[in-house]
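Quick one, tokens below. Sequence please?
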């Protein structure tokens, strides 16, 4: 837990809670922060397995997964390739598009992009996001042509790959994945412009609806697409797929989180709870799915 990404604080919250759950269930678990301790120290401590509660770069992106494989320590969640791919929203979208899975139309932005042209092709409002960041960091909802350049400049501070994406004005849905199954969908509602950093971790006016209020048929259809999207990237173990429901009733896939939050505001624990799975059982279930390679 911890690490050195922009999501360090959230990771510490997730990790602390996971650690408490493991210890409550009698697992001889200890915190390890790769920001402060070397991988040699991890090796020397002779752990049987690692529950990875890191978010963002150097944790969720395949690097720690690769290091653990090299050290021969089994770990939770997706492997190296799937972690790296899911971290990259642009390449994720390319794969989904190639497989015929629905994702909002997008354009890659560069310093030379013409705001008028981009706005015309995608429509307004649109979303601008750094390809490899999380927690809505560096992301903006652009409501007028003049706001595109500042939105690009902000996103470019976090990544040299910046995606402009069509805004899907539907309800927002997220599907937790545990093993081979999708958990019940959660519908997110926020009075803010979108589900931004504040809404995710601090606001108390964000509403989480589970059940999400879809027909059984529609719920199953979204879960199916989410699972397919997850598997297509090669993801495994557990994770969470974010999507927006379009006016056409179709889910538009946004991204896969291979190490979703496990804080007391987090969505996978909420969806598990709706199925009668306690936080401790969820943590143990994820732990049991550890693998090397
Ligand atoms: N194309 C889009 N249309 C509408 N809302 C979007 C779109 N893309 C992102 N959002 C909003 O921004 C939030 C964060 O976007 P997401 O792609 O999931 O990135 P991350 O969670 O990694 O920061 C989403 O939960 C959603 O509220
Ligand atoms: Mg998201």
């Amino acid at each position: 837990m911890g690490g050195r990404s922009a999501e360090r604080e959230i990771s510490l919250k997730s990790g602390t809670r996971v650690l408490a759950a493991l210890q409550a269930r009698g697992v001889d678990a200890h915190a390890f922060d790769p920001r402060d301790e070397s991988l040699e120290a991890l090796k020397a401590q002779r752990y049987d397995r690692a529950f990875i509660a890191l978010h963002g770069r150097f944790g969720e992106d395949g690097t720690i997964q690769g290091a653990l494989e090299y050290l021969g320590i089994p770990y939770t969640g997706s492997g190296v390739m799937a972690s790296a791919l899911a971290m990259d929203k642009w390449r994720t979208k390319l794969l989904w598009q190639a497989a015929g899975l629905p994702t909002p139309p997008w354009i890659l932005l560069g310093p030379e992009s013409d705001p008028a042209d981009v706005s015309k092709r995608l429509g307004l409002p649109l979303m601008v996001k750094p390809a490899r960041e999380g927690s809505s960091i560096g992301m903006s909802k652009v409501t007028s042509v003049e706001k595109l350049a500042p939105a690009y400049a902000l996103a470019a501070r976090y990544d040299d790959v910046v995606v402009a994406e069509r805004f899907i004005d539907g309800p927002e849905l997220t599907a937790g994945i545990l093993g081979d199954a999708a958990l019940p969908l959660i519908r997110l509602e926020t009075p803010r412009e979108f589900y931004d950093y504040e809404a995710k971790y601090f606001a108390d006016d964000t509403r989480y609806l589970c059940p999400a209020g879809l027909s059984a048929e529609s719920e199953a259809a979204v879960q199916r697409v989410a699972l397919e999207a997850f598997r297509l990237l090669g993801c495994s173990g557990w994770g969470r797929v974010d999507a927006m429901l379009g006016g056409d009733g179709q889910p538009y896939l946004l991204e896969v989180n291979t190490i979703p939050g496990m804080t007391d505001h987090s969505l996978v624990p909420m969806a598990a709870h709706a199925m009668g799975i306690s936080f401790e059982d969820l943590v143990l279930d994820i732990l049991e799915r550890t693998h090397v390679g």
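The chain is about 35% helix and 15% strand. Residues 242, 254-255 surround magnesium ion (ligand 2) (CB under 6 Å).
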